[in-house]
Amino acid sequence: MTKPFDSTHLPDVFRGSEARKAGLITASQLRGPGVRRLFQDVYTPAHVFVTHALRCRGAALLAPKEAVLTGRSAATVQGVELARPFDPVEMVVPEKFRFGPVNGIEVRRTEVKPEESRPWNGIRIARKSRIALDLLLRLSPRKAGWIRRLRIGVPDLDAFLRAEKLSDLRLTAEFYGRRNRGIRLARHALLLSDPRAESPPESEVRVVLVAGGIAAEPQLEVFDRNGRFLARLDLAVKKFKVAVEYDGRWHNTPKQRAHDRRRRKRLEAEGWRFVIVTADDLANDFEGIVAAVHSAVRARLAR
């Protein structure tokens, strides 16, 4: 009877060709159930839990030393989990170098200044300001319209700014004087960013409203006539007392629905009007969201 292959002696991520040369594994074992392939010639033992950070380390084994881990990948490695385990690993390389294509790794060739990164696992990892920039440059204009790009890029940037306690003003200089592809839209996205947003859908709703000509303030605290705290609103058009709130799946439980009704009733008694946005609205009804808020504002003006 063949003895099962024991992979516990292997590193948690390794090049298959190098492990074979070192006598740690055979070609047939690389094809067996004892290991899992992450990229071409990059593996992990089957017992190792695969995270995005692990896959970033695996990608670093293939990349030239000049490559820079950035965007969602670099944010995730540094503790801001924007990338899921099997999302593409995001890298940039200076324009004079070539790397890829590699299945599972997204590589952009663009200008990278030496001071924008630091050494990491044999390659380099972007510093915070460069990560913020690449969060907005990562989507090609050919792949999506400008509104869709903003609806994806701004929530990522909001979450990163909030977690890293970065100011968008601090980043402004990093976004100007550049010629990177997509930089004009990235500057616009930076102006729309707001670290007060507490979830990606809230950020996305805010972008939708801005595109519809509506400026809404995130996480507005509301007090009654006696100065007592009532609630904090996802988004608010304060001047007209119109609240825009995103109801995700967590709002569908009976307990949460009852809590939402009580909370909104208190605010309605103070003159607030609500527009509720669902996940389906956000995915499919851009115009409907904007129209509902405009309608609520008109109703306020009529009163």
Tell me what the structure shows.
The protein is an alpha/beta fold and about 300 residues long. It has twelve helices and twelve strands. It has helices spanning about 15-20, 25-30, 50-60, 70-75, 130-135, 145-165, 170-175, 185-190, 200-210, 255-270, 280-285, 285-300, and strands at about 15, 35-40, 40-45, 70, 90-95, 105-110, 115-120, 125, 215-225, 230-235, 240-245, 275-280. The strands form three sheets. It has a five-stranded mixed beta sheet. Strands 9-10-11-12 form a four-stranded mixed beta sheet. Strand 2 (about 35-40) and strand 3 form a beta hairpin. Helix 5 (about 130-135) runs antiparallel to helix 6 (about 145-165). The longest helix has 19 residues, at about 145-165. It is elongated and about 80 Å long. It starts with 13 loop residues before the first strand and ends with a helix.
